Each structure stands twice: as structure tokens, then as C-alpha cells.
Amino acid sequence: MFKKILIANRGEIACRVIKTARKMGIKTVAVYSDADRDAVHVEMADEAVHIGPPAAAQSYLLADKIIEACKATGAEAVHPGYGFLSERASFCQALKDNGIVFIGPNPRAIEAMGDKIESKKFANAANVSTVPGFLGVIEDAEHAVKIANEIGYPVMIKASAGGGGKGMRIAWNDAECREGFVLSKNEAAASFGDDRVFVEKFIVDPRHIEIQVLGDKHGNVIYLGERECSIQRRNQKVIEEAPSPLLDEATRKRMGEQAVALAKAVDYDSAGTVEFVADQNKNFYFLEMNTRLQVEHPVTELITGVDLVEQMIRVAYGEKLALTQADVKLDGWAVESRIYAEDPFRNFLPSIGRLTRYRPPEEGSDGEITVRNDTGVTEGGEISMFYDPMIAKLVTHAPTRAQAIEAQADALDAFVIDGIQHNIPFLASLMGHERWKSGKLSTGFIKEEYPDGFHGNVPQVEDMKLLAAVALSIEIQRKDRLDNLPGRLRPHSGELREDWVVKVGGDYVDVKVPSGFVGVPLEIDALFPGDVEPVAISTRYQQGELLWTGMVGEREVTMQVRPVLNGVELRYRGATSVVKVLLPFTAQLDKLMPIKAPPDTSKYLLCPMPGLVISIDVAEGEEIKAGSTLAVVEAMKMQNVLRAERDCKVKSIKAKAGDSLAVDAVIIEFE
Predict the structure, then answer these.
(1) End-to-end CA distance of the chain
(2) Do the beta carbons of residue 200 and residue 155 sit within 8 Å?
């Protein structure tokens, strides 16, 4: 077996590979840019080599830098992770030329399957059903429009060398096709150094289902079940699960056998993923093959018990697969949420900055529930504008889908991140969504269920009591602590005031506490309106902790707690609520307090995220119509088109192409 390998990547996937290498007794070498000098993967590895400036094109994408690092450290093999150089046949060949093993498929397989256009040609030759489309060279936007009309709208415009949702656009008419062609080419060039795109039919109400394959260098190939990745935003996967709630055994077998046949056609010899689009009637069509480890591989590992990174390393060393197809058994259900540094309340635009708090839920198994968190950051670390915004992958496994979803909701409630904006409130909201829980999915799910964007959950009626109970317990504890400060007399000598009013958002809840209490752990009974019997509340929470965990009646509850003026902010199931515990008289006065109106920013175009201004598309004094393009801002390799929300006239322009702007910086002022 290899004695030392280098990981040509960063972040959570670099950490993930290091964990398996350690388990196998293999030493590891990390590489890092200036921006990653203090990164977790650098700390975890046995050795680390600096490879350049923050921009990936000047560091992680330079094959010669990786090869130099291998030679300097004596690394025998390279694991590329995903992204960066993972699907570059030229990199694989360069390693081979220098006597270094590539932990991934052979160059021929990468060339055949890594290119979306070529892979479709191979699939057609192998009699795999494919989506109708045009696989030739598209000359310009008008050529794309001509092709789209021949295929029939809607169409998908996709980067040939793409992945991760970059360089992809759906077009429903000629205008969207022209714009999508330009944006896809630009994003493809920026992200992959290859601006080729192709056009294919977009399947309406589709589901994204992929088959994990695993091959060795001796002609053996198996499939390890499927993953469903239909919950997507801007063609970027958000939640994945395994298995799929759509498939039955017969369909799973057909998809798996097609995937294996395609892999064998190109002598595939590593872990890879064959992606399909399926309609609601279980008809499926080949999309592409990713010749690398997928971001969502943990859900497959949890339901099969197979360490895919270990298998990749063993195959690269020349070992035969120890598994046969008959050995593959699917056990239980796994759900993965991608934790992104983005603001769900601002249309999911990227967020950068320092992680002032980063406290993920505890990993491990508790009874039938397993929690896993693949991450590459730590508290105090910085989320950079140079790389993908993913912070972590939170995965839960349980015997059933419903249990895995509930476990995921609990784990999200316990995931503390401060200092940047993140998508945990949105993910927690999704976990409680009835359509998601029923398994009636499509890639249009988010757009259909959140057509106006995500504005935060409103606490459900049944959650109001939980919020009130938690806030009440915190306030009683706080008062007890104050009463016991030196030099103060305890006014109620262990007896507790009976009448309280808890304000949850804009609602007021009358609560009675008919009995005394003991400090920590706290145990009280609370009588809520409409209840005949008091509800028992117990917790070991202490003032200043970030998580309240305890029992409210028969329900186990975890909530995040943040102090605010005269109350607490509680975060639970995707809802953030400011809760105040008041005396009845104080509550009457509180109802008379005026509500402060937010400032009017309707006369300004504000930069919605930290980013680089690519273009300003209007001029001072210009009359513009609603929907017109005002500017394009790039952040984390994604180009974001900012459009006018109403008819207006440009008064002044405050930024120019090339400017780096902060959140809410003024770009344009309107009359």
C-alpha cells in the first residue's frame, strides 16, 4: 500500500480524504494557497506545501505545482478530491509521466466521460437512453437559438466541462436562450478554462437521480445504489438522500446495470457517478458521468457501509475490488444538507467573513441515529471569496426516511454558526416541508415552493408553546441567578411568581407557573391557555450557553439562544423568534410601543453580496424598464445579473466595472 499520498484539494474534501488515509496508516501531504495558510486541512495533514496566491488559477489549478509538491515530499500518489484538477485527463497523464499515481480513473475514461458532449456520444453508442440535444460546436447565441427551436423549448444550456451548477441555464424562449448562452460561456471559461457549451431538451418536472459506480483495474465494476439530488437551487444541489423515494427495486436495477455497462465501455477503474434525469413515471435518461468522487458521497457510504475513499485508494494501488454486486446491501436512509455561506434572505447570495462561532452538532451514533459532519473549517476561520461557499455537509442516517429527516432537523437546530450568513434556516425549513417529507420531489422544488424567495419560517401554532416554555425557563433561571448575587435578598425565598406574559414575535401568551422550582437542572410546571394540566419543563441549560436542550412535556427540544435587549432570540426549525418574558402590567405597556419602520432603499441599487463588478449596463440619465439589466456582479465564480424591479430613471452611478464592493454598497441611485 502507498506510504504517503498528496491531496490536491482544500476544505472539507481534503479533510475527508485525510481521515481515511489516517485510518489506513498512510501519511498525507496537504497543499495550500495564501488564503488557506491556517486552514484545517493544512493542520490535519502530516506535511503541507504552499503552492501560490489565493486565486485557484494561480494555485490549486496548476498541475506543475502539485507535481513539484509530490517530488519535494516523496508522495507516491495524488487524490484530487472533487473540482479543481479532479477531471483533467492532462493532469492524470502528467502525474503518470512523472511516476506518480492518480487516485482516480484512467485518462481515457476521464476524456470519454468527463466531457459532457463526448460522454453522451459514448452513451448513445452503448444504447443508453439519453436526453435529446445538440452535441456539436455552437458558434454563437443565434446558433444556440436555432438549435433550441429545433429541439423545442424549454432547453438546458450547459458547460461541456462543467459541474457544481456553474455554466448552466434553463431557457424558455429565444431571449432567455441568447442571454443564457452568453452567461454560460462566461461562467464556463471562468470556472473551467473551457467555454464550450451544448444544448439539450429540459425535462419538465424532472428528478435528478445518480448511480454510484466503483470499478477496479481488473475489469470489475459494481454499482452501490442511487442518490436523489432533486432539491436544487440554480442547478446546485442543496439536499441529497439515499436511496431515492421514487425508485423501486426493478428501476434501481435497470439504472444500475446501465451505469455499469457505460463504465465498462470506457474501462472505468475508480469511484464515479452516472447521473440520470427521471420523470415522475420513472422513465430515466442519461445526463452525464462525473469521473470523480461526488460531494454527496457520504449518503452512499452510510447506507452501504463502504468507504469510497478507501476503495479509490486501494483500486489505484492495483488491488481488486473486495466487493461483488451481491455484497451490496442498502441499509436504512441517509439525508445530507449542504451548509453554505450564503444569505437565504437575500436570494441566497454569497456571504464571506470570519466564523466568530462554529459549533456543529456532536458526531456519532445514538441508538439507531447517526450524525456525521464533513467540514473543513473551524471557529475563528475565514470564509474566502475565492472558493466555493460550502462550509460543511451535515448527514444523518436512520432506519427510515422519516426518522432520517427528523434527525436532520434536530441536528440543524443544534448547528451554531455566527459571523457570516448561512443557509441553515432554509435547510431547517425544508426539513419541515410537507412536500419534501412526502417525497414528491423535482428539480423545480425550491422555485415552486419558494417563488418569492425565502423569508424565514413563521413559528407554527404548536411551536409557539415550545418557544414560550423555553423563554420562560431562561427568564426564571436569570431572575434566580440575580436573586442569589452577594448582598441581595431573595425576594420570594424560593417561591415563584405565578402570572407571566410571554411575547413571541407579535403574539402574547399568558402563562401560569403554579409551583416552585429548583435552579439547575431547572424543573417547573407551566399552564398555557387552553390546557387543563400544566406542562412540565426541565432543562440543564445554564445562562450564557448557546443551546437550550431539555424536555417540554413529552417532547425533547433543542433551540439556539441569543441574548437580545429585554429578551432572547430563539432559533428553531428554520424560524428565528424574538421572545420576551414580561409581567402582566409590563405586557400592557409593551403593546403600546410603536414599531420602527425600516429605512426606504427603493431609490438605490445596493450590492446584494460582497463581489466584483463585472459590468454596469446603464448610463446616467437613462430611462429603464422593469426587468432591464442594471449590472452584473461576480462572487465565488458565479455571475449574478441585477435587474430593475420597476420603471425608473438613473440619477447617478456610484460604481464601475472592476470595483470590489461590500454588501449594501450603493451601485446606482435612481430619481
Answers:
(1) 70
(2) yes
Q: Do domains 208-331 and 337-450 have the same CATH topology?
A: yes
Report the CATH number of the 461-590 domain: 3.30.700.30
The answer to whether the beta carbons of residues 200 and 133 sit under 8 Å apart is yes
Of 470, 522, 521, the C-alpha closest to 496 is 522
Residue 374 near residue 393, CB atoms below 8 Å: yes
Residues 6 or more apart in contact with residue 281 via CB below 8 angstroms: none
The single residue listed with the C-alpha cell 464571506 is 352
Give the pLDDT confidence of 353-392 residue by residue, as tens digits: 899 999 999 999 999 999 999 999 999 999 987 888 899 9
| CATH class belonging to 208-331 | alpha beta
The alpha carbon dihedral of 531, 533, 539, 541 has a sign of positive
Tens-place pLDDT, residues 495-518: 567 899 999 988 999 999 887 666
Domain 4-103 classified CATH 3.40.50.20? yes
Distance CA 562, CA 546 (A): 7
DSSP secondary-structure letter at 457? P
337-450 folds as D-amino Acid Aminotransferase; Chain A, domain 1 (3.30.470)
> Which of these is catalytic: 87, 241, 275, 288?
288
Side-chain-side CA neighbours of 65 within 13 Å: the count stands at 22
Alpha carbon 329 to its chain's center: 27
Residue type for position 424: I
Contact call for residues 570 and 470 (beta carbons, < 8 A): yes
CA distances from 568 to 429, 471, 544 (A): 21, 7, 11
Residue 288 catalytic? yes
CATH architecture assignment, domain 133-201: 2-Layer Sandwich (3.30)
Domain extents in the chain: 4-103, 133-201, 208-331, 337-450, 461-590, 604-670
Distance CA 109, CA 94 (A): 15
Query: Rounded to two decimals, what is the model's pTM?
Result: 0.84
Yes or no: is domain 604-670 CATH 2.40.50.100? yes
Place of cell 507516491: 76
